[in-house]
Amino acid sequence: MQRQHMIMNMLLEIMVYSNPFLSDTKACLIEDPLLTDPVSGIPLPHLSIILRHLIPESFIYFLSPPLHTTLTTHHYAGSIEDGTKFIRLGDLSRSQKMIDLYKTQQSLKDMVHLKSDLEAVLFEDVDAGSSLPSVFIDTSKTKSGYCRLFIPDDHVPEIDQITLRTESGLYLEGFKTPDLPHTSDTEITAVGIRCAFSIVGMEWFIRKRQFDFPSLHLRLAILGLYCTLVQKAHHQSNNPAIEWKINFSMIESVLVKHLSSQQLYGFQIFKVLLDNLTFNLERRLKPKHLKAVFFQTCEEIPSVLWKSNFGGCFLFLLSKLLSCLRRRVLPHYFIPQRNLIEDLSADDLDTLCVIVESVRVFPVHISQFIAIKHGITYGENFVRSILEDSVSFTNTRDIVPVIDRVIPETYRTARFFARFGSYKAAAGLLESVHELSKCSSGHSLPAGFYDFYNGALLQTRQRSSRTILARMYDDRFGTKMIRSHLEESEQSIGKKLPWSIDFQISWIEVPEKRADDLILIADFLYELSLNEYDKRNATLATKLIETAIMCINKAVQEDTFDIKEIKDKKLKEEIFEQKRKLKSKLKSYYTHVYNVSALYRDFHPLIDHIMDIETFCKEFPEMTHTVRAMFTYLKMYDKTIEYAEKLQSRSSN
What we know:
By secondary structure, this protein is of the alpha+beta class. The protein has helices spanning 2-17, 21-31, 44-54, 97-104, 197-200, 202-206, 216-223, 249-257, 261-278, 287-300, 305-308, 310-327, 346-361, 363-373, 379-386, 390-396, 400-419, 423-437, 449-458, 463-477, 493-496, 503-506, 518-534, 538-558, 569-599, 606-619, 624-633, 637-652, and strands spanning 60-61, 74-76, 88-89, 110-121, 134-138, 146-151, 161-166, 169-175, 187-196, 226-230, 243-247.
């Protein structure tokens, strides 16, 4: 251990303390969008381009925060509430090792139940006419961000309250909570008491800000909200039984919801990179640490710069985090007197310093390494091409050659995305690079986005990618780009099936011999879905198999008549067997739905069909084992147990 500590100190001396540029360049990073970063040696425009290609916004998984009101009775604790805990990069690799790793660290169990009949207030703010019982906040003997809840002697504690009398008076210790509501995927881990944000957050509200985050309108809205007090003591508390922590989860979810798309994207990359470098650490940076630094950084950078100088803003954010770790002080965003890393040891902080410094010094190499781990395999050639002129750019600051080199690389990257069914990512990348191109003058780009976008499609060999991307453009801008890439055919699925078909597959032509029979069309679509599954295009595989299932269900409905009216027993059995044989096709179809979901460890499309599958299993009990596996995959464990019992019952019979 002592040897490791010595090595860590040596690394710190080499990487951190010998770097004179870091503190001096923070301002330059946001003031000069054409700067070549003296720490990493990467020009900021090049870094912006590389980050957008290696870690595309559309490949980042993020749960949007919920909307809360004063009637809210529950909220998740910590960063589960605002969705930032679950930010991760999508995994395109065949092994899906990264997704499996993410899932081992994700849980939705931590839910706070809010007391609807109690509120925490300051003693001097108590409203004599209020019908709502109150407890009084006492911060005289607690650390910043914590408090005790005092009950005056003339107040009778409620029947569910657990109290503790000390020499200072009567304090609330907790609640008797025998029957808290819960669901199969959540667990009530704490009972919370509402506390007006204005009581604990006034200093945050009135402090001076240089730029536009958060806006006055947003600050006023937050001032009228509530935070939560939960029974949790500071690690240095002298009486932890009666100490309560101020929880800002609901307030932070409001802030996250009001970030610009580029600010949010910056935080997402920030978290993805640091998570992937610290998976193996016992004491790692949590979302609460990253958010505190990020929110403060947003106050120090004009919001518009996250779009025009993304690379500079990102490096500024890394530098700020590194500065906090070096100083051993990372202030809480709402209560800056509280140090969020005070419980980390010197060794922990030294390790984190080295990791963050490595990202700051080698942002491109680290991003490329993490992208490759997630199956984004084009990174090496792309980075080499983009950085080819970085030395000359430092001298000339001419963006034109950079843009001219980016365009063909962007087209290649967009084709890569589309091949895997990530059409939204492909379209978004084309738009962001075209926006970047407008920052330079004198280059030989097409004048408008239409020509730029169409240029990418003309270089795309895969017909499905051209067609889908053209339709997406037309749907958004009301154009007719599709006419350049597809001729309407009477043999298309959209023409042959009498219900509305998703545009991503409606153009596919059905072979003439199969075109007039729903069952043959279903088999054709199933075969295509298997083919797309083999190519790892879950988007098209899903659309095709769902349409195939619809074809079989429609065919069964068309053949439906009352078998009971048929008196010929043999004929009745033949018809019944024929209908059963037709429906039995769904066994392989539903199993394929399961396989498509598992391709990228996603619940969809399986969760959309699981109720129909369960009904189907009643008629085809040989599916029981597979259906049990499906419920296990969906984490519907009550159903897993039910189907395990069915299997046991069948085997015993």
